[in-house]
Amino acid sequence: MNNIIVIGSTGQIGSELTMILRKIYSGGTVVAGYIPGAEPRGALLESGPAEVADVRDARQLAAIVDKYHIDTIYNLAALLSAVAERKPLMAWDIQMNGLLNILEIAREKGCAVFTPSSIGSFGPETPHMNTPQDTIQRPTSMYGVTKVATELLSNYYHSKYGLDTRSVRFPGLISYTTLPGGGTTDYAVDIYYAAVRGEEFVCPIAAGTYMDMMYMPDALRAAIEIMEADPARLKHRNAFNIASMSFDPEILACAVRKEIPGFRMRYEVDPVRQAIADSWPDKMDDSCARQEWGWAPQYDLAAMTSDMILNLKKKLFSL
User: Fold this and answer.
1) Cis amide bond preceding 239, omega within 30
2) Which of 45, 55, 122, 264 is paired with 236 by a 20 to 30 Å CA distance?
3) Catalytic residues, which ones?
4) What local confidence, expressed as pLDDT, does residue 178 receive?
5) Domains in the chain, CATH or no CATH each
6) Beta strands in 44-176 (DSSP E)
């Protein structure tokens, strides 16, 4: 990778990934792609080029690829699970029609493409414990449907045209830097904000609901490491299970109380998010990622919780 564009650079993943890529590939160019209304600010804007990059506008994307001689595209444009349920047509347009535009541009111009998949690509019939790399995928949400289709379409372009497509299935992602934007696993970020502020947390996910989660530093490493991996070792490409930790709200609350003993939590279950969560795996088997490109997480629940609370105290009380 030398010249890169991160589409969706101001989102939860993109805002951090763009900055890390700029540090790693300082000899090249890393373009922050964004849509109007979500402009980059601060260091993200000042540290490198930024361009309006709507995945639904193929001409616009192609012009950016030509302008900066892009060789790698990180396609992070998506509506998250709960939002996609409210806006299914928009979700399809962005996540599928947008992906098709990107794959066609990449095919024509010789770019590698990373488009993340998700635990949302699985469904109720999927084995929930130690979910295999290759298993039944019958999601019941529009978000999940688009993620399965993303995997299949990316694989098609690789097998049909030799396009270098790669992906991981992200668990729920937890970060203190950027607030999440409507995902089923967002409670696992919101709980830390409430705890640091000394507020009672109202949990929208029921006790006993286990889901795979990951701290953002590990997720960012995965996105970079899969694109740097030796292609000769990759058997799956689109998309690898990656895992770090699995917990339910009660376990997470207990971890928070070890750092903030007075923390309080109660439940008001959101039926939409709960239905989505119930269809997702409790814990994925990521042995293929470990074997094929050396994946290994660095954070467990305790280490993540300590780091989240430390950094949120700095963030919230320095305002």
Assistant:
1) yes
2) 55
3) 143
4) 77
5) 3-170+215-241 (3.40.50.720), 172-213+245-283+299-317 (3.90.25)
6) 50-52, 72-75, 112-114, 117-118, 129-131, 165-166, 168-170, 172-174
